[in-house]
Amino acid sequence: MDQDLTRAETHFAFGRNWAEYAAKITEAEVREAEAGLSRLLGGERLDGKRFLDIGSGSGVHSLAALRLGAREVVAVDIDADSVATTRAVLSRFAPDGVYRIERKSVFDLDPTEWGTFDVVYSWGVLHHTGDLDRALACAARMVAPEGLLVVALYRRIWMDPFWRWEKRWYAQASPVAQARARWVYVTLFRLGLRLTGRRFADYVAAYRGKRGMDYYHDVHDWLGGWPYESISPGEVSARMARLHFTPIRVFARHGRFWGRDPGIFGSGCDEYVYRKI
Ligand SMILES: C[S@@+](CC[C@H](N)C(=O)[O-])C[C@H]1O[C@@H](n2cnc3c(N)ncnc32)[C@H](O)[C@@H]1O
Question: So what's the pLDDT on residue 170?
Fold first, then answer.
């Protein structure tokens, strides 16, 4: 029988991974998260703005929003461990911030309950909800008139069918089997880097520059990130037009083979900033 993939019980344990990652966060990661958010906002601050973080994960980007001056941050995640981790990170790094954290699915967000937000941010989340199209529409309706929707979504790759199969397996595999899969992945990745003249150690050290993230936690997240969907920039553009949004900034990579990359080591996220009109 087909599972309802919008239910948290069918999902990869994202929150446990975020709890481990968050234990290692320092000011350096927080600064990178702030820089990553600031880049998406075109260098503008969030002074006086209400900010909604859907799928907050570790909470480090909710923290970045507070550091960028947001008047109020609301963070939600479907995973209880992500919610607890977001709470721990905000109380540790922003004890005086104005924020609210709740366990809630994007599908249950209701603008009549909390009002709408100047910025709705959902990085690397909506493709893991089990219904990307509906999740995008639910996130969009939380945006205030003239407000921004900032999302990052997995781009389509030729190996999507393989990764769908792999993630479904990994998400329910034993910790030992998962550790073996990570070893195979990292070994092949190292080999790939060597063949292209790059050093693995340099790659891992520079990884923090990607929004304050950590390579090994991202490997676990990538291999296990189930449910999984992907989308092309053209499809995003059509859906956002239907939802009455206009593009402000798009950071998308165009694949080398008929518009798509093979995706041997996975996909990457394209980032989109849209304004509600
Ligand atoms: C890959 S993580 C991204 C976390 C964070 N946004 C970041 O950029 O680091 C995906 C997160 O989305 C959450 N998530 C998945 N489905 C969700 C849903 N229906 N509603 C809210 N959050 C959801 C997961 O629990 C997980 O914490």
Answer: 98
**Residue 138 identity (one-letter amino acid):** C
Please give the structure tokens belonging to residue 250. Answer: 């798009």
Ligand 1 midpoint to CA 197 (Å):
34
Residue spans per domain, the chain: 8-157+226-276
* Residue (of 226, 266, 247) closest to 12 by Cα position: 226
Alpha carbons 98 and 51: distance in angstroms, whole number? 11
**Cβ–Cβ < 8 Å for 78, 6:** no
Q: Return the CATH superfamily for domain 8-157+226-276.
A: Vaccinia Virus protein VP39 (3.40.50.150)
Cβ of 77 less than 6 Å from ligand 1:
yes
Per residue in 223-260, pLDDT tens? 999 999 999 999 999 999 999 999 999 999 999 999 99
Residue 188's nearest CA partner among 266, 102, 257 is 266
Ligand 1 pocket member 126 (CB < 6 A): no
Please tell me the distance between residue 56's alpha carbon and the centre of ligand 1 in angstroms: 6
Contact present, 29 and 208 (Cβ < 8 Å): yes
